């Protein structure tokens, strides 16, 4: 059996809100066919002004009905405390 070719893609990150967020995001497929999240940050070399990209290979991507999801567990939001009911015995 022949191994799959490794490769991937990057696109502009529509969720970038801070400088620390990646400029580009996408997916990378390794030779075994496993997909991983891929992130890239655009940088400029201060010595000569050349542009370069820093890359990070992230968590594996898990295919689920119609889309891809990270295997990393989702953040669980804590329930909001309810407002205490007012005492009906107040005479006004």
The proportion of residues forming helix, as a percent range, comes to: under 10%
Question: Average pLDDT value?
Answer: 81
The strands making up the biggest β-sheet line up spatially as 1-2-3-4-5
Can you write the helix and strand succession as a string?
EEEEE
* Count of DSSP strands: 5
- Tell me, briefly, the overall form: flat
Radius of gyration (CA) equals 23 Å
Q: Which structural class matches the secondary elements?
A: mainly beta
Total helical elements: 0
Main beta sheet, described?
5 strands, antiparallel
Low-pLDDT residue spans: none
Distance between the termini: 82 Å
Strand content: 35-45%
Describe the structure.
The radius of gyration is 23 Å and the shape is flat. The chain is built from no helices and five strands. It has 92 residues and is mainly β. It has a five-stranded antiparallel beta sheet with strand order 1-2-3-4-5, with no helix packed on it. The model has no long low-confidence stretch (mean pLDDT 81). 0% of the residues lie in helices and 43% in strands. The protein has a domain at 7-70. The chain starts with 6 loop residues before the first strand and ends in a 22-residue tail after the last strand. Strand 2 (24-29) and strand 3 (35-44) form a beta hairpin.
